[in-house]
Amino acid sequence: MAATKQFLPDLPIGISNWQVIRDDKMFFVDKTALLGDLVTNQRKIFLSRPRRMGKSLLISSLKNLFTNGDKNFEGTAIYGNWPYSETYPVIHLSFNQVEGIDAQSYAQSLKGAITEAYRAAGFYQVEEYEQEDLTLNRFLNKVGRISDETRLVFLIDEWDYALSSNLNNVTLFNDVLSVLKTFYSWLRGIDSTRFILITGIMRYNSVSLFSGQDIQDISMEPQWSSLLGLTHNELITCYAPYISEAARRLNLSDEQLIAELKSYYDGFCFDYNASVHLYCPFAINKFFAPTTARHSQQLPRFTSYWMTNSNAAQALKSYLRSIPFNISEDYNKLTTENITLTESECTNAVSFSQVKLLPLLAQAGYLTIKEVISNSAIDNLGINDNKPQFRFGYPNRDVSTEFKTVFNNFINESINSLENDRILKAALLQSLEANKFDQSCDQLNELISGILFDAFTDAHEAHYRTIFTIWLRDIFKDVREETPNARGRSDIELTTIKGQVIVFELKLLNDLKSEDIDYSSTTTFEAIKDSILEPARMQVLSRGYGVNYHNEGKPVVGVLMAISAKERRIVAWREFNPDPNIGVREGRAQAINMHNKHLAAQAIMKTTATI
Fold first, then answer.
1. From 161, 302, 411, 478, which residue has the greatest number of CB atoms within 10 Å?
2. How far apart are CA 262 and CA 508, in angstroms?
3. What is the DSSP letter of 559?
């Protein structure tokens, strides 16, 4: 008899119930080693983490432990090490299930959620309080009598959901704020609680949650940096069978697969020492899902999971529409990742009117800590307030790819008509498919002219590479930025619908001080050919750009683009084939008339400095 085929255990995608994961024998990474210290070192805790990092599973695990002890945790680090021999009733509230259109309806919804939470913990008398049609204050006062008689555990998930979801509605924001202020004033007044954990993303003041010292914010404490998310060591050890199976299916070595996983999904960092980098567990589980029994015929895909499956892209659009920001300044910072924030900007509670885009993006996970800036570096920046400073950037390709697309499209649509943007990109698709790269350069220049002129002040080559990649990803499925091989890293590689690979190499001409350069002259063009285009061609050939496992068996063509820093456009281009027997095509790119668009952009800036 043939042996039964063994499949890898299912992965808990979208499942955050500890008991379900154990009962269904799903795969999990044991994160319980820190839980004993967590519940004894502090009694009232706030923990901020982005979506899909494991907050709900943490709360479910703690709920099980406080309710049942460690009997359901056999084989984990906490088994035999849970510090409490007695059990406690747990009041579990998920604020993403509380909703309303005004203060009254939101308060009514909250009363219903509290009633259900107390009923689930065995306190059925609370149902009578809800039926009495009491105000929220009087309802909470009655519920509070239970807390006076019994030591309770409060586990609160997504505390700020209704606030962060209504940044574009100041009236509803303030209505929700008034209700939450009543609730958290009541919660903080309960002296007999055994433990309180509150999770969420943002910190808003005027809710009685972040005033005083009794609720400790541990979000940036190094001790708890690995409590949520996956470390690199956890990935390569715990996921070893999944790594080997995925590598086999993709015809990669384990090492190649791990390098790609690191590029796409590693990089989240939350502690003030910038010491621990983390993978998003949801993204990792989504990537490995095809290796399990249920999806055994599918191939794993390197793509964006956190941004596209956690509502992060939609939330980003909402933030951009709701929060004032400086177009040119913040656009440059986000494109070049030149972002510096203080610890207080990351952790201080703010009012509705004080919410700023960059700190919000940092707390929501779109940006993450890259390094701590030394005191000498802070002095060089002209900052002398002695507060900790951090450089922020995008965590990984999962986030940066989709973030830049959403952000860039928002800017374009704010200045240009959406229809014009679509027409240009449709034309760009046709010219690239037809290898008419002279037209492609003109179309890229037209797209550049639709971005605020000020946004390109001191723009680096990476700035152009990023926005070109964003536009190309709008029209082609397979576009890769900075693709590595053994000898170097190409700027952009895309595969056309016909299956041809185009390798783009960008060169920025640092000519800002040379105001008299005439890019329409033959002399200038010949100089660019000799000093820029030919060395770039040799670079592409000598380093084997386009020659990697992504492109095996596909025809490859190279396209070089010389970009003027002064004129902020492509000024010359060259197409060449790796086959030395095939000649090159080259030419000057047309100077697009940017004057009218520039005037329109400046008019926007004058009427309002923000969107």
1. 411
2. 29
3. E
HSE-up (13 A, CA, CB side) for residue 361: 32
Summarize the confidence of residues 222-232 as an average pLDDT. 95
CA dist 490 to 26, 363, 542, 580, Å?
Answer: 40, 32, 12, 20
Burial level of 36, CB count in 10 A (0-12/13-18/19+)?
A: middle
pLDDT band at 566 (very low <50, low <70, confident <90, very high): confident
pLDDT digits (tens, 9 = 90+) for 501-546: 999 999 988 764 555 788 888 888 888 988 899 898 888 888 888 7
CA distance 305 to 481: 18
Q: Is residue 116 pLDDT above 90, yes or no? A: yes
Task: Name residue, tokens 């009514």.
Answer: 108
CA-to-CA separations, 535 to 243, 316, 396, 491, 542, in angstroms, rounded: 40, 41, 31, 15, 10
Residue among 364, 255, 367, 306 at smallest CA distance from 13 = 306
Give the C-alpha separation, 48 to 225, whole Å: 11
d(CA 94, CA 355): 24
Contact between residue 528 and residue 573 where contact means Cβ atoms under 8 Å apart: no
Is residue 426 pLDDT above 90, yes or no? no
Alpha-carbon span 389 to 375, nearest angstrom: 9
C-alpha to C-alpha distance for 67 and 360, rounded to whole angstroms:
35
DSSP, res 148: H
Which contiguous run of DSSP H or E holds residue 239?
none
Q: Which two tokens stand for residue 212?
A: 């005083």
At 233-247, the pLDDT tens digits run 999 999 999 999 999
pTM above 0.85, yes or no: no
Is-contact 492 444, C-beta < 8 A?
A: no
Contacts of 531 (CB under 8 A, 6+ apart): none
CB-facing half-sphere around the CA of 512: CA atoms within 13 A: 8
Reading across the β-sheet that carries 195-200, which strands appear in turn? 90-94, 153-157, 195-200, 44-48, 216-217
Mean pLDDT along residues 190-199? 91
Average the pLDDT over 399-417 and give the result: 75
